[in-house]
Amino acid sequence: LSSFFDEFESVPPTVLKEIYKSFVDDRAMLEMLVEEKPAVVSFHFGAPPAQWIEELKSAGIYTMGCATTLSEARQLEQAGAQAIVAQGYEAGGHRGVFDDGFGKDQQMGLFALLRIIVAAVDLPVIAAGGIMEGAGINAAMMLGASACQLGTAFILCPESCATPAHREALKGPKAHQTRVTSYLSGRPARGIPNRLYLESGADRVPLPAEYPLAYDAAKALHGAASAKGCHDFAAQWAGQGAPLARELPAQRLVQVLVEEMQAASRFSHS
Fold it and tell me: For 135, which of 177, 197, 233, 264 could close a Cys bridge (C-beta 3.0–4.6 Å)?
């Protein structure tokens, strides 16, 4: 990345730090959650020890885990999770794959993944990935989902923490071009492409450092670039349904989604 740093009269970091500590190595986080008792705790990139999940459940906390394959769903079930979030390849943000080795992601689309997990796992399954409208929610529910998880649909809400640059990108032609990259963080994640999406580069590039070490370097680069008014290296996560995002207050968006679900349901029964 040194040439990028040179462009902004900066220098790359000489040391990479683990800027995000894993929950499985953070007993203090578990104790805080047990004390605070949030209604739900959801896991990404795998599951903590079964005993930790049991402690959360004993505190009255509902536990969910993200799966991108049937194998991952079964591991979460065995660990004691109470629901599975089936994350299709369409989803924005970080892929929930347990094994972060390159080439290991099976890249399953939501509908195939959803049917396979629902047929084999005796837990509620929550559909995630590319769902933006009421009709999409209904479709997932008809395929066996107990609920749906929407993320990209809410990025344009005024309540979200998305930057102005992220919002503008989501409202423009770039929203049609979301791709998965490992170069921003060290783990595969889907977003709006920028200059750090190096997979399609003509020149051979080295593999990024592991997550979250690569993220540390990318954030340093984004900081140097943004100080010069450039946002070409920002992480602008978004799913494949990004062009369907609507700029509505969150409460109104939820109302619209429910109205769309009801309208689509009436149409399908007519």
Answer: 264
